Amino acid sequence: MIKVRREVCGYCGACVSVCPEGAIELIDAYLSIDDEICKNCKICVKVCPLGSLEAIKE
């Protein structure tokens, strides 16, 4: 599962554009990750320029 650290996120959308599953949406400066769709590939974590995404174990 990917967690968004909202206090760090700059809502740039870099993660949205690289998600191969389309699990991330940026709507009105709110980042949403659909855990049902996310395959936990961690590509979004790697491209986040601010380090606001974190892969956590369930």
Summarize the structure.
By secondary structure, the protein is of the alpha+beta class.
Annotation keywords:
58 residues; alpha+beta; two-stranded antiparallel ribbon; 2 helices
List the helices and strands and how they pair.
Blueprint: E1 2-4, H1 14-18, E2 24-27, E3 30-33, H2 43-47, E4 53-55
Could you characterize the architecture of this molecule?
- With about 60 residues, the chain is an alpha+beta fold.
- It has 2 helices and 4 strands; from the N terminus they run E-H-E-E-H-E.
- Strand 2 and strand 3 form a beta hairpin.
Q: What coarse outline follows from CA principal-axis ratios?
A: globular
Strand percentage lies at 15-25%
Major sheet: arrangement of strands: 1-4
Run of helices and strands: EHEEHE
| Average pLDDT over all residues | 94
